[in-house]
Each structure stands twice: as structure tokens, then as C-alpha cells.
Write a structure and sequence with these properties.
single chain, five-stranded mixed sheet, globular, about 600 residues, about 10% strand, three-stranded antiparallel sheet, alpha+beta
């Protein structure tokens, strides 16, 4: 049990964490697990969450607001969308007048006009400001099926017009192209989308879809920039980084929340998007991208995060867009990991404590952007839990955006964690006789942190780079390398049962359809003379600990089979007690 000590702000702290702030996070997760956010249906409880997010953004940034007060722009985006303009200094905080650097009315107009271009109206939205660059999120492009369906719906229920995206004087109704030509409609709505991207100085677009187009009932419901026939997005740098959808995280949950050894089946019929990365990015990361279909969930997520961090650290001032299909599962996963990773480096939200950055990313990146947690929990698709439990895999300096430099403006002081505190944090949950899987060894990794598996570098570019399938690369496009689906005969080579995995510290013997555990060697208990973890590691572990405590006291984890000796539920119960919360949801 962790020792409690008086806090300067009143009450008690445990491992330097405020019980009150931990309870706020538990309340947030409790509401989130029962309700999907809708801008039109806001309760006083949700209003308090919205207000809290603005307070947390205000600690470090000057910002403007993109109005979405009743969901008129997007029904599952925040009512007050934060547009971060610049980091605020102490002088700025003392100054009453806010000097805006953006024409917010023009931005609001671009948003309103561009919303039809993307699935569910989830337009390109800036969410993180890093070194003056906007990291944005959205859904993918709307395809023929959704676009025509929604334009027809809007036409009927708006009295025959929709000023937000069409201008009658520019597109006369008697023009045959309006009646029969899909091209002109796409030119119109996607043109607005491109204007918004350029206004936000976005150059890089990372598409997480495993398919080129989403097909339902024989219709192309959604599309993506990488297969736009008219090559409207040819001036952008497009990266196809296929990542499994939320359904795959049912497998993660069914394997007792074990990500090691869990490999996506790339041979499914609907999976047709190859991994395609510009040569200048893929060459500099010491990653063998040709093996991406053999990576387990840990290694794939690590490598994709490395790629995103590498992109935003490029020399130019261009921003980044990350999206999947609807933009509410895989998209918040990587947005949240980016925000937390950059925060751990002291590069963003420098004045927020671990509990505060955790609250902000859960509330803003997940809840207020419409993640359907109640639905995902009912189906066992634990992508939300995976995100925060995954923090243990990115504590290494290999994921740092600020390398070999002293962190600046860091609010996290050395005094917040003593060696004794860390030893207690590491050793207090070792009482169970039963060995748990590595993902359930929640805080018991070695102090050195989880290792980051990297294959030996291979020169992939001795031949001519290959353009992405489905579109002809323009002459001005950067060299791209594309990796397509494996030959089915090669499947056995990438099967987790036939390949030794170096990621994390898993010692279990696993297959794709079941888990067989052979036990594991006990971990060495840290001693008083151990080396102090890096600031990055201490920060991310603090965030993860708070999350696990709050999650266990509200949602809880559901094991696919009863846990031997109640080890898992007992472990999570200790987290809840450790920060003053009572774990009410046992593993079932």
C-alpha cells in the first residue's frame, strides 16, 4: 500500500497524485462508459467537462473557439472546438487582451463548407499545437453512397437548399453535370476540404484505413485521399498506414488484454490498402517496413507512433492530419498517444500534471469527439483501455520528440517522485503467486522500461520506388515505397506461434485463437540503489497508474475466463485503493 502525505492544495496525495483529481477522472470515465457525447444533448455534468477542458487548455495556450454550439457543424464534435493559436507566456497571462493570429470567421466558414466532404461530417479539426504545427484529426472522405445520401437528406429537411456547401449561382440546376456527374459534386465539396487543409498548413495526411474504400450494400460509402481518381490531393504527402479497426480489439480483450503476439489477419478480402510511406521518412527510422504484416499489436503501434513523431519533427512548418474511417476509434488512439508522448517530453501542455493531462485527453480527444465507448464495451472492443495501458510500451527515450536536449518548461519536478516512491510503485503489486500476462503486469515492468523491438536496417530503396496502387503518382510527388499483401504461402512465416517476439517482456506461449501460459520468471524487485527512471518514463507511468485505478473502480476488466486465484481483480483493486478509490467492478 502506498503511503499518503498531506498535499499543499489540501487533502492527501498518494505518490504525489491528488485524490480529488483522481476521483474526477473516475467520474469522467463512469459517465463516458454510459453515454456517447452528442452536442445537442448536453447535461450539466457534460457542461462541467467542457468547462474543465477549456481551463486546462488555457494553462498553456491562447486559443480561439470554432462554434458548434448545437452540433450544427458536426453532431459528435465538441460544442466549443478549441483552435490553439500559440503558447502563452507569463506576460500573456497577465495581459487581458487576446491578440488573435487567425481570421476565426474565415476559419468558421471553411469548416462549414468543408464538412460535407468527410464521413459523418467529421471535418479536418486541429487538436494539438506542436512547434507551431497543427496536428489535426478527421474522418475519411465521404464516398458516393454517403455523400449523395446526406445531400439528399439535407435538401429535403432544409427546405430545398443547403447554404453550407453549395452555391446555386455557381452550379445551375439545369446543368447535366449536377444531375448525372459525380465529378462536379466531388470537385465542389473536396475543394472546400482542400482549402481548409491549406489554411491549417497541413501537408501530411496519414490514413489508418486497411481498405481503400469502405463498401456497404455494394456502394462505396467512404473513400480516401489515396484513391481519389481526380488526384485532387496530389499536392499533399499521403501516407497509407493500415491499422486494425476497433473490432480487432475484441481479440485483444479475449486474450486477457494481451497485445503481445496478437497479429492482424491481413489476408481478409476487404483488406486492400498497402503500407505506403515516403522514402525520406521510412529510411530514417531503423525499421524494416517490409515486415509490417508480421508485427504484433505492440510493435505495430510503436512503429506507427514513431513514424508520426518523425513526421511532425520534420524541418518544414507543415501540419499533420491523422484519420481512419469515422475518426472515433483508431484516430483518438493515435491522437491521444501523440498528445501524451509530447507532454511527457515537456513539448506540449507543459504546465499540466499527470492527472490533468489524462483528464484532458480522455475528455477532449475521446469523449467530446464522440467515441462510442458504451457500444465498444458492450462488444468487448477495448481500444480505449488499450490506449492508456499501452503507455508502458513508449516510456523509452526512443519515442522522445526532444532527443538529447534538456526538457524546457517542464512542470514535473524531480521531487514529485523519489526513488523510494518508485520502488514502492514497482513492488507493491508483487504479492500474487500466479504469474500474469505481461499486459496484466500493470506496473511491474523493469525500471529500464519496455524495450522497443527494431529489426536490422535493410536498404529498401536500391530499386525504383513504387507508387501507391490505385493512383498514378504525379511527377512532383516524393518517392514512395509500397508494401502490399503477403502471399498466402508466406503466412506461416509471420504467424506469432512460429516467430520469436522481442516486444515487451511477454513469456507466454500464445496462438491467434487461444492463450496457453507456461508461467514466467519472477521479476527482480527494485532496490534502493537502483537508477532513477527518466522524467519521460516517470510521467507516463504516473498517467497510466491513475488511469488504471480509475478504470478499475468504474468500468473494470472482463476476463474471457475466470482469473486463477483472482489475481487480476486483486491487482486492479490495489490500484483503486492506492489512490483512494474503491474498486467496485470485479473481473467477471
Amino acid at each position: 500500500m502506498m503511503a499518503a502525505s498531506p498535499s499543499a492544495a489540501g487533502g492527501f496525495t498518494v505518490s504525489g497524485l491528488s485524490v480529488r483529481k483522481s476521483e474526477q477522472i473516475a467520474d469522467l470515465i463512469d459517465l463516458f462508459s454510459k453515454t456517447q457525447y452528442r452536442a445537442k444533448e448536453v447535461s450539466p455534468r457534460v457542461e462541467a467537462i467542457e468547462k474543465r477542458c477549456l481551463e486546462l487548455f488555457d494553462r498553456d495556450y491562447k486559443y480561439s473557439i470554432i462554434s458548434n454550439s448545437s452540433g450544427e457543424v458536426c453532431g459528435h464534435y465538441p460544442r466549443q472546438i478549441v483552435f490553439l493559436e500559440y503558447e502563452s507566456t507569463e506576460v500573456d497571462k497577465d495581459r487581458d487582451r487576446f491578440e488573435s493570429t487567425v481570421q476565426i470567421s474565415k476559419l468558421q466558414d471553411l469548416v462549414s463548407r468543408s464538412k460535407m466532404a468527410r464521413c459523418r461530417g467529421r471535418f479536418v479539426c486541429p487538436v494539438i499545437l506542436y512547434n507551431g504545427k497543427h496536428i489535426c484529426r478527421s474522418a475519411t472522405l465521404a464516398g458516393w453512397g454517403e455523400l449523395y445520401g446526406r445531400t439528399g437528406y439535407n435538401y429535403i429537411f432544409s427546405g430545398g437548399s443547403d447554404d453550407t456547401w453549395t452555391e446555386p449561382e455557381e452550379v445551375p440546376e439545369d446543368d447535366p453535370a449536377v444531375r448525372n456527374g459525380e465529378s462536379q459534386l466531388f470537385d465542389k465539396v473536396r475543394g472546400h476540404d482542400i482549402k481548409l487543409l491549406r489554411y491549417l498548413s497541413v501537408r501530411y495526411i496519414c490514413d489508418l484505413m486497411v481498405e481503400n474504400k469502405k463498401v456497404k450494400f455494394g456502394l462505396n460509402v467512404t473513400s480516401s485521399e489515396k484513391v481519389d481518381k481526380a488526384q485532387r490531393y496530389a499536392d499533399f504527402t499521403l501516407l497509407s498506414v493500415p491499422y486494425p479497426g476497433c473490432e480487432f480489439f475484441k481479440d485483444y480483450k479475449d486474450r486477457d488484454y494481451t497485445a503481445e503476439g496478437l497479429v492482424f489477419n491481413w489476408n481478409q478480402d476487404y483488406v486492400d490498402a498497402p503500407l505506403t510511406i515516403p522514402a525520406r521518412f521510412s529510411q530514417n527510422l531503423n525499421i524494416d517496413w517490409t515486415r509490417y504484416q508480421s508485427w504484433d499489436l505492440v510493435e505495430q503501434t510503436q512503429n506507427y507512433l514513431k513514424l508520426l513523431l518523425h513526421i511532425i519533427n520534420s524541418d518544414d512548418d507543415s501540419g499533420l492530419l491523422v484519420h481512419c474511417i469515422s475518426g472515433w476509434d483508431r484516430t483518438p488512439l493515435f491522437v491521444s498517444l501523440l498528445r501524451l508522448s509530447l507532454w511527457a517530453d515537456g513539448a506540449v501542455h507543459a504546465n499540466l500534471e499527470p492527472a490533468e493531462i489524462l483528464y484532458l485527453t480522455i475528455a477532449y480527444d475521446w469523449f467530446l469527439f464522440g467515441h462510442m465507448l458504451p457500444d465498444r464495451l458492450s462488444k468487448g472492443e477495448e481500444i480505449f483501455f488499450f490506449c492508456f495501458n499501452f503507455l508502458k510500451h513508449i516510456v523509452s527515450e526512443k519515442f522522445s520528440a526532444v532527443r538529447k536536449q534538456r526538457r524546457k518548461n517542464s512542470h514535473f519536478k524531480d521531487s514529485d517522485f523519489t526513488v523510494e516512491d518508485l520502488c514502492r510503485l514497482r513492488s507493491r503489486d508483487r504479492g500474487s503467486i500466479t504469474s500474469l500476462s505481461s499486459d496484466f503486469s500493470l506496473i511491474t515492468e523493469e525500471l529500464a522500461g519496455a524495450s522497443c523491438p527494431n529489426a536490422d536496417p535493410v536498404d529498401l530503396f536500391s530499386g525504383q520506388p513504387q507508387a501507391s496502387s490505385g493512383r498514378k503518382a504525379p511527377a512532383s510527388s516524393p518517392p514512395m515505397v509500397s508494401w502490399c499483401k503477403q502471399n498466402p504461402l508466406d503466412e506461416t512465416l509471420s504467424h506469432p506461434a512460429n516467430e520469436a517476439k522481442s516486444s515487451s517482456s511477454s513469456s507466454s506461449n500464445q496462438s491467434d485463437h487461444g492463450v496457453t501460459r507456461s508461467g514466467s520468471s519472477p521479476l527482480a524487485v527494485p532496490t534502493r540503489g537502483c537508477s532513477l527512471p527518466s522524467e519521460r518514463q516517470a510521467r507516463l507511468e504516473a498517467v497510466r497508474e491513475i488511469f488504471l485505478a480509475a478504470y478499475s473502480s468504474t468500468v473494470g476488466l472482463r476476463s474471457s475466463a475466470p482469473s486463477p486465484s483472482g489475481a487480476i481483480s486483486g491487482l486492479l483493486e490495489q490500484f483503486a485503493r492506492g489512490v483512494g478509490l474503491r474498486g467496485s467492478n470485479a473481473i467477471v
